[in-house]
Amino acid sequence: MALPTWPAGVSYAPDLNSISDLTLIRPPIKTEMEGGNVRLRSRPGDNVGTMSQTIRLDRAQFAVLRDWIKTTLGNGTARFSMPVWFGDGFETKVCQFSEGAPKYKPVGTRRVDVMMTLRVYGV
After folding, report:
1. pTM, whole model, 2 decimals?
2. How far apart are CA 36 and CA 102, in angstroms?
């Protein structure tokens, strides 16, 4: 089954001041030993990064995104593809909302800020 793509007509460009650092890998598995040493092991197959960002949408774009998250993504649980900002341009990646569906905050009467933490696959 093909992955859903970010809805057409909905901005994916984040507010550049809202982008957190992209964590390129998940934290290693940590095992504490009896002697006080700590053993760190990478997670095989993990090429998943995380980042937070805020996207400002008008009310019409927000309505499309909200419906897409509820219906197409199963309340924000499914993976999808979208262009992600990597500092020098956008690159289409497979993503997933890491902490459930995004949070929303009205900005005046015409705009909505959509705050999300993304799991970005293949970084």
Report:
1. 0.80
2. 40
pLDDT tens digits for range 7-43: 999 999 998 888 776 676 667 788 888 877 888 887 7
DSSP E strands, the chain: 29-32, 38-41, 48-58, 80-85, 90-97, 103-107, 111-121
13-16-20-26 Cα dihedral, nearest 10 degrees: 40
52 burial via Cβ count (<10 Å: 0-12, 13-18, 19+): middle
Exposed / middle / buried, residue 54 (Cβ in 10 Å: 0-12, 13-18, 19+): middle
- Show the tokens assigned to 29: 């598995």
